[in-house]
Please model this.
Amino acid sequence: MGDDSEWMKLPVNQKCEHKVWKARLHGYEEAIKLFRGIDGEKSPEWDKFQPLIVKFVTDSNAVAQLKGLEAALVYVENAYVAARTAGEVVSGVVCKVFNQPKARARELGADICLMYIEKEKAEAVQENLIKGLENKNPKTVCGCVEALRRALGEFGCKTVGLKAVVKALPRLFESREKAVRDEARGLAVEVYRWIGGALRPALQGVSPVLLRELEEEWARLPATPATQTRFLRSQQHLRDASLQQHQQAEAGPHQADGVGTEQCVPDVDPFELLEPVEILSKLPKDFHDKIEAKKWQDRKEVLEALAGLAKSPRLEVGDYGDVVRALKKVIAKDTNVMLVALAVKCVSGLASGLRKKFSTYAGHVVLTVLEKFKEKKPQVVQALQEAMDAILLTTSLQSLSEDVLAVMDNKNPSVKQQASLFLARSFRASSPSSLPKSLLKPLFAALIKHVNDSAPEVRDAAFDALGSAMRVVGEKAVNPFLADLDKLKVDKIRESAAASGGGEEDKSVSQTGPPTGVPAKTTRPSNQAPAAEPAGGPGKAKPGGAGKRRKPAVPKEPAVPREPAVPREPAVPRGLQESELSLEECEELATAVLPASCVQLLGSANWKERLASMEEYLQAVEQMDSSQMPCQALVRMLARKPGWKETNFQVMQLKLRVVEAAARRGVFSRAAAGAVLAVLVERLGDAKCGGSAREALSSVAEACSLAWTAQQVVSMAFAQKSPKSQCEALSWIAGAMKEFGFAGINVQTLIIHIKTALGAPNRAVRTAAVVLLGVVFLYLGPPLRLFFQEEKAALLSQIDAEFQKMQGQSPPAPSRGTPKRPGGQEQEGQEQPEEEQEEEGGAGGLVDLLPRTDISAQISAAMLSKMADKNWKVRKEGLDEVAAVISEAKLILPSLGDLPAALRARLSDSNKILVQQTLSIMQQMASAIGPALKQHIKTLGTPAITVLGDSKVGVRAAARATLSSWEEQTGFRAWLEGEELAAELGRENPFLRQEVLGWLAASLPPLRSAPPDLQLCVPALYACAEDRNPDVRRGAQEALPAFMTHLGFDRMTKAAAKLKPASRDQVVALLEKARVAMAAQAPPAKPTAPPPPAKPAATRPSQPSTRPSLPSSQEPESRAEPRPKAAGKPKVHAGKKAAGKAREEEEQEHSGPMFILLPGGKELRARDEKNLKVLKWSFPSPREEHVEQLKVQMSPCVARWMLEELFHHDFQHHIRAISCMIERLELEKEAMVSCLDLLLKWFTLRFSDTNSSVLMRAVDFLKLLLPCLAHMGYHLNQLEASAFIPYLVLKVGESKDGVRKDVRSILSMLCKVYPASKIFPFLMEGTRSKNSKQRAECLEELGCLVELYGLTVCQPSAPRSLKDIAVHINDRDACVRNAALNTMVAVYNVCGEQIYKLIGHLSDKDMSMLEERIKRSAKKTPPVPSTAPPSKQGEDKAPPPHPNASLLRKPSEQPASKLRQIRAQSAEQQAPPPPAEFSLDVHLLEQSGSPVREMPELYQPSPDHLQTPASMRSFLSRPRPLPVCQEELRPSPAYSINLVISQVASGDLNTSLQALEQMQLALRRPGVMEGLSDQLLQACCLQLRLARSSHLANQRTPPALVTQLCSRLLDCMFTLLGVPSLACEVSVAVLREVVEELLAVLLEPSVALLDQGSVLLEANQVLSLLLERADRTRILSSLLVLMQESLESSSTSKFSELVMKCVWRVIRFLPASVEALDLDQTLLALHNFMMVFTRKRLRGLTSDLPYRTLKTLLHTLYKCTGPQILEHLSLVQDRRASGLETHLKMLLSAGPRDASLYKERHENILKIFNKITSQENCTQGLSELAVFRQHHTEVDLTPHLRALPAPLQTLVQHSLKRTPAAAGGPAPQPSGGEKPKPSEYQESALRPLQESTIQAPLLSISMLCQASQLPTLHQAPPTPAASSLEDLRRKLQRIKENH
Model:
């Protein structure tokens, strides 16, 4: 008892680990009670037992183990963290539980495994159970098999993977233990219950006796299909549906029909369950030699070997091209019939084993096989037939049609017969949709020829083929092709169709079934189909589905309702998928759902019977189930005689009401609408039936979209001659627009039809068109009138009057237009057709949509010459012509040719009338060009500013009007960029200064932010402040506050310090005065700030204080102490009074703002840190210097009392400061943002604190701050992010789980305010930590980012990042390994098999782990129920848009107490809660008047939302509760666009195409894509790379889809680059990547085949636009980098040549754009290039093009800038290292080119080298060459040296090195004794690019021999050169003697 008393006192968890088994038993019992009492599955109590659960199940004591299993089961069932232990626990169950003798233990172990499956861990459980099947203990194997059987029976084959199970069955059947075989038999029966006959091929290897026993057990299975009885935690909605199904099944079979469609058994292809066999390596090594051997025995040997290998049911994919070609040769040319049959069987085996992968080789052998039908041997013919049938399964009949048609004209009757029989089998195996008219037309033409053939077997085969086609596509579709046949032959074809079809009942069976000899997919046991048929009956089988699929009869297997199943791609509307049905099919479908009497009396001659029939018809439609309604069949049945020519108006009204009911209640497709629209339009003009027709049209529009319906209606209306119908059609469209809204209306088509109506002779039609125009005006605004300016004056006045009526009105909110699906599910958000994808909601959208004219061709040279003529009348005539061109074009493109330069000259014309006319033309241009006018600001806008200085008032007024019109289009920010405005303001013209200052004072205040170039205007502004003209001085004083708003007082004061003392004092006084004026205006401008206290706090007890809510007893004593200045009072009562006053002042101070808004403070701090004026915020642990520096920086931004709290030594003060910030967050968020960098730095200091309370409080505040920043649309800058994120990443490795989870939550919120691609490198740095938890968490977060944003998030590049991540697969820590593997799986889900190329080489162990994890964890998208009702506002939040979003983030802890308090207060105020992520804010939409829409699965940011910052600000300003967790965040526009950009790079082509469509919408909205150009271009480049490397190589991807993807990508890039502001912001790295990818596309051979090379043309256009629009400095730098890489790497010469051509193209633009070029950066890039490729190395290349390119670039830069270019080498550190400065100086010293000097120098060089090559004057020539080299170091002697023999080259080089000039000594004199002048040898550097290097005279062979001997050099003076020459001569002599 003493021992028991010891462990009885221990806690439960310690008891469970005790050595004594009784203690453990007692601990397990207490644990069960404890587990059942824990409230909540996420309680921290569960974490204590997480490491112990494995010990529970592996207890060594049997009694204790049994109780431990019970405790483990309770734990797994209730604990959220239990899923993490799945692998270890199940492994323990397999090894230690299944081998136990007690059945209860084995049962509990199986229950634990099933519970883990229910907790979403099916893969881990199945993996361990499959491993357990290899255990040597039979009991363990039996337990694993039993667990698998139970899992499959309860959860179904969707949860439990069958491939591994089926693969293990044959091995289990071979076991020696009978118990194992029996369990395996039960498992096989369970598998068969789910997949049916698909199991048989996998069990062909078992013994026949066992297989017969299995067949008997399979036959005894019940006929009902298998259903899932147990559901995962994420499938609880299915469980409710299942219960409802059982309840309805008990109520009656009819009520249960259609329920449970979620659980339908999936089709399983037996082929997919088979393991592929690799046969290429097993072929005989001499296969290709022997198959061409002369002996037939050798050929037979290898063919038999191949035939044996090809019998494998599934073959591994490989390169079978050589094998197929060899077989083709044998079939075509071998004379041995037996070998031909054997080769054909080999082809058949390869086609059957490869399936779709054989389609690549099908085209090579089909023609040969068909021509071989001339053989008459039965075995050969049968083999050929089987081969053709097998090949047909690998491809389509359309792809084989050319080869079939080629043999249809063969002279051999057997060939024609067998070709027709093959077509007959193909037709029977096809569906109507796969046999279009384009395919049938040539085939029928050939078959009709065979019908008239002389051979009877050919005729019979043709009849069979034609009959088979008639049975499939219907007689109506075939009859047009049989018009030339006589009646007997047509009847025979019909007999053949009936004989092959077996009547109507067999029609659908033959259509859906496979052809003879073709294995079909088995979806369920064959014995279940007959039993399931009576439930529905053939006459009641899914008419709606039949109408959709065009299958008029009962599906082959009605046991599984396929039509109501959940669609996998809900983005495609169901109504758009239906094809047109024939009248026979419609009659059959309608008969199944309508009363028989109703159908019979439709064509009665008695109108009363027809009326009664239609009443019954309408009643049946109204009462019919909407999901089962065959709408197309119902409306087409109305056309039966008398049809739409019905004369009785009552019957006609009922018919129209039937159409309206079908469109309103059913799934009404456009095919159904097309059958009735013409009738409805015609009946609009009927006085009695017009109302019914209008209602029917409205219902059709609601079902098929107004955009499509209106286009059809207006087209049909004007195709008729009835003015009444036309008038009513236009009136209906006008009314429908008000009901449905303007979404998706094709404006261009509508305007064309309205113009047609306006030209109609009938007045009522014209009036209706004018009324329709008025409705359109509500949505499009004034730009609509531009299209009707050419109308007659009277008509135009009517249009203007109508527009005037609509002026000021707002369009009504749409009340209709949301099509409903049968289950009540709205179709809003589904993908619409092209004409519906864009909503034109205003004039801006219309202007973007309108076509623009390129008038550059109309601006002729004659017109420009007139404008430059000396005669002012001629110049005026030229201006008139320009004005006429612009007026006629209305909307023009910004490309104007030479017109801007000509207009600029006219702005300075001496004739003021012409100046005013030019300004008028510029105003025309502003309205005609629109925002694209920004590119002409420098050319025309700046000269227009100069006109403001004109002395005439009228001219200045015209200039002001012009500038206003331009500013309205371009915005004012563009005018401030550059030095032009500062230069204009600096002109000493009082009129100019006065006008410009007034313009600045009016336009600067509304500007949100000004460019840095505004600082350049400050000196001129100060000069204006001292101008002699009083108006100028007054204007400067009025402009000072506007400048100070953007620049700040400090910067303005610093600029004033540079003035003279007298001027400085005057300016500073003006600045102070402006500062005071701004301060006086500041409070009214900030309504959100708290009002200043008018009374002491004690007199306002009713108002809540903004101080931290602390009791008076808990306030620190320092708060109660008086200030020092009041403490020294001598009197006591005075001291008390002073202390009270100090406390009162303190209260007032605390009630004031905590943070002070300082304009420009953040930018100043960023500049100081960049210039290293302050300490960089980077440290392993904070030092005292950093803390002091931060305190100094925060002192002007934070209130004094808050600063004391922030930097107090007591942590309680830190908590109090954070609490204050939480309370003041909404009130002072703007001030917090102004000092956000300092605030984030302060929180990094708190991260290093050891106090957990401060840390948790800091985390709480950050969880509130980041959502607030996201709502404000604020984005962190680089300074803020680099100072905060690295230290936040450090806290990911915190030991406390709560902190880790909160930090992960903060990281997820960061993606809303900082690009995920920039967060990625910080997390990558975190993976290098020594802390294993930090490494694991960072890897998990990286996986989340890849899952959400794709591979574009990987920076600096995907291969480099993924290689670094893959290193952690081999980490020592298991958590790190798992995290790395999970991240790799996320990458695999995005890019597929390309991951193996990206990660590079891995060890075998790591690669096997990765492959296994990918195999087990492949991404599976859960099905979304189609009948689920839409979520409502205020109910449960919608699921995340990403399929794996629920697995991406760890759940965060409960919010802190303050957060709960804020939430409670918000609930009391009944403020609307913030919208959940990716959901709509209904209140905001109601206020803004926008229609409420549901978001689709692919997140589509609304263009209106992206372009309405004002409404967003008003939304944020009203009182609302603060968001408390990530789920309550509303995605900001930037986050939405980032998400869509990440989807552009998606591996799914449809997702990428949808994202590109959305990006096109965003690009059309100005300002939306600012700052995102790099990200979008990177995503486009990545997708282009995937298209080239993956999609084009993937045979399953249709080439048309790849073509569409490439075209959309290039269009998106073209649109982005077409916006100048977006094109200029692209960085150097991205420009390099874009150019490289575009060049790769141009060089890709497979791309050239896409759409006849159209993709290449688009890529070329994009590249040209990029070179033209991109920033000159960046594009030039990127091209130099790319040129360097291409020359260094093994790239093809073609690629390098294209890169250099791009450089030459940029060089062409340099003279016109050199002002925009940053010469310092450009010269730095040139320096870096020349450091790698010196001039010597460039000359050593095989091609001289690189050298010429570099030389031309330097020459052009020097030509454009002149000698000032040397002043721009500031960024080059070592200027002489690359030779750049030397080359520029050479250009500078060269001066103008002189032909005579060049010729003289060239002759001197030739003379010197002639002397060197002669025996007598060699020494003299060397001396002269040294002198020449000393004076002309810039001259290149290399070409002349290359012309010398090798010995002489060495001699000259040694001589030049040893001369005194080279050593720095005195220069030797020439032979003449006279020192030459430098001008004698001067050489011009400006050579033409086409001129090659100077060719020196080549030496003859005799001269070379003389140079090698040189006998006369012995008499030369003893010089160093002579001695060297003598040594060289002796060496050459020895070499000759040796040879």
